[in-house]
Amino acid sequence: MKAAYIQHTGPADVIQFGDLPTPELTGSEVRVRVLAAALNPVDTYIRSGAVAMPLKFPFIVGCDLAGTVDAVGPLATQFKVGDRVWGSNQGLLGRQGTFAEYAAVDEAWLYPTPTGVGDEDAAAAALVGITAHLGLVRDARLQPGETLFVNGGSGGVGSMVVQIAKALGARVITTAGSDQKVARCRELGADVVINYKTQEVDAEIKRAAPAGVNVFWETLREPDFVRTVELLAPRGRMILMAGREARPVFPVGPFYVKGCSLHGFAMFNATPAEQRACALDLNRWLSSGEIRAQIDRVMPLSETSAAHKLQEESTVGKGGQLAGKIVVKP
Q1: pLDDT tens-digit series, residues 127-142
Q2: I want to staple 28 with a disulfide (CB 3.0 to 4.6 A). Which of 58, 75, 221, 300 is the partner?
Q3: Is the model's pTM score more than 0.70?
Q4: Average pLDDT of 84-103?
Q5: CA 49 → CA 64, 290, 326, 328, distances in Å?
Q6: Helix, strand or coil for residue 4?
Q7: Is there a contact between 237 and 215 (Cβ–Cβ < 8 Å)?
């Protein structure tokens, strides 16, 4: 089968495109014929070695996938050949990735693709959708009528946070860096969109939520807790899912006096049961159209190296070229 893989960690140029053996199945694994795979920032961190993971070389990159069941292992019971499925959490913790024509995935990490939802959309919504759901539902326990703020409402995770928060009945404030991205956030359902290049963000948040925001979802790699705590409402919750190297000052006094809480998490530490609970809601919302995958572009599997370069330029390099996910197709 064709695959995008590495023989050692390093820059995007280390990614090779070529032939690898089609995976054989053991236990409860399912072999998926991959029809779409989506790129995430964490994929670039693992490939570069910035995030240490146990890797078996040659290592196939990628976390997300959608496709059709091609074969089932001897202990697999949840799917049959021909079923459409999607999933995430591959290419992590010793598992091979998804940027290949076929992937062997334990059925615990797979979910049925709803009728009417395309493979590209299912793949693009996978990791970011599960991440947003874990933070909003499991950790923040966002309630109808509450106000949420999220940085970057047109980005991969940010766009899912906006949409899921609206599906849960919350009021959403977000930011964007261009008129086009402002319009995109409004299309996603955001109630207040602040152009951070032309407006004073904190003043606009206070104007929109004078009593403070109930949930502050931070996507920036260098959070400013002094600023954030001031913007939180009493008993406000802050969600952290970025900033691995950040070591900011933390205002303990104002934080505990307000009764606030701080929740940090990495999606790949969630159990299969926790992630499946997210997938059930995501499938329902994707089917109803309450959430939509945000895809910036679709690229061929053979251009995985170029896709990684673009992802890094947009995120680590802070270029902001992407307004949605890169989807790769074998």
Answers
A1: 999 999 999 999 999 9
A2: 75
A3: yes
A4: 97
A5: 19, 37, 21, 22
A6: strand
A7: yes
Q: Output the average pLDDT for the chain.
A: 95
Question: At residue 142, what are phi and psi to the nearest 5 degrees?
Answer: -60, 135
Check whether 322 has a pLDDT greater than 90.
Answer: no
Query: Within its chain, how far is the Cα of 125 from the centroid?
Result: 7
Count of C-beta atoms within a 10 Å radius of residue 13: 9
CB 196 within 8 A of CB 177: yes
| Ranges in the chain annotated CATH 3.40.50.720 | 129-267
Is the CB of residue 132 less than 8 Å from the CB of residue 269?
Answer: no
Under 8 Å between Cβ of 36 and 122:
yes
Percent helix, strand, coil in the chain (nearest 5)? Answer: 35, 25, 40
Element counts in the chain: helices (H) and strands (E): 9, 16
Distance CA 168, CA 184 (A): 20
| Residue-by-residue DSSP string for 251-284 | -HHHHHHTT-EEEE--GGGS-HHHHHHHHHHHHH
| Superfamily of 2-113+294-329 according to CATH | Medium-chain alcohol dehydrogenases, catalytic domain (3.90.180.10)
Alpha-carbon gap, residue 116 to 141, rounded angstroms: 30
Q: How far is CA 20 from CA 25, 58, 169, 291, in A?
A: 15, 9, 47, 36
Percent of the chain topping pLDDT 90: 89
b/e string for 187-222 if b means 16 or more Cβ within 10 A? ebbbbbbbbbeeeebeebbeeebeebbbbbbbbeee
CB 35 within 8 A of CB 300: no
